[in-house]
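Section 3.1: Structural characterization of target chains.
Under the original work plan, the team committed to producing a structural model for every single-chain target entering the pipeline before any wet-lab resources were allocated. The record below documents one such target. The sequence was received from the expression subgroup and is listed exactly as submitted; it comprises 290 residues.
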Amino acid sequence: MQTILSIVIATLVSGSLFALVAAGLSLVWGTLGVFNFAQGSLLMLGAYAAYFLGGNALGRTGLLLAVPAALVLLGQLGVVAYLLLVRPFIGSPTGELAVIIATLAAGTLFENGAQQFFTAQFRKLPPILTGHVDIAGNSIAWQQVITIFVAPAILLGLASFLKLSKTGFAVRAVAQNHDSALLLGIPVNRIYMLVFFVATLLAALAGILFGGQYYVTPNMGGDLMLQAFIVVVFGGLGSLTGTVIAAYVVGLITAISNFYIGLFWTPAVLFAFLFVAVIVRPSGLVASSK
């Protein structure tokens, strides 16, 4: 029983983090039709921003003040990344490939820059809440509880925003048909910037939650980016619903693999699972309506 509960807790924590990162990737793909390979590095920068803006010296109180500032800062960086790495290639015959190369290069630059300026030293953000809660003999940190509940709440808010607000309607219209959206007078370029802003916020929040539970290092975004990529493909490119479901499925597979096989083999297990899933259901769990 304790083993099952441990796996369930690990699934919920990992799935919540995967969902935040993958939702941003899915949103960008669904709206712009490009894949942002710098998302993992933006996640890492979000954690460092919260650390140096107050989470380090001022403890928990400083972290509560630093998180909003870090999110705004990273959101602006996301907009800059769009303007420099994506916008110049929109409409180009090789635009998708150019964006892949540009975001990969930017991600490498961010990671190497962090390595240079912050060193490879392991750092840790202070937890928002300290202490543990016991559930059927298993101890779970309050920081993990926050992750389990905050991530779905944020994603539910995002889904509601996309479905119910006028701006959300504009995002969905652009995702459906770029040219028709232009004819309707929708400011497509602003929508693209907004999408990158939101996607970067999600990545930065995931980085902050991850850094409060585990560690902050220049390469912390690599594994999460890999798992988020698997989630997006398995869930259905551009489908937010499929992405969230897939995040928890991948979280479950990760937890089981880590427990029974070992951390070293988990990436191979995930790619084997993705290989089978793509063969069985090429469009993903929930095919995008685009």
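Residues 2-121+138-280 form a domain with the ABC transporter involved in vitamin B12 uptake, BtuC fold (CATH 1.10.3470).
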